[in-house]
Amino acid sequence: MKLDHQSTTPIYMQIAEWIENEILKGNFLEDEKVYSQYKLAEVFQINPATAAKGLTLLGKEEILYDQRGLGKFVSPEARVIIEQKRKDKTMRSLIESLIKEAAHLQLTEQELMVMIKKVHEQLGGMLK
Question: Does the 11-76 domain belong in CATH 1.10.10.10?
Answer without folding.
Answer: yes
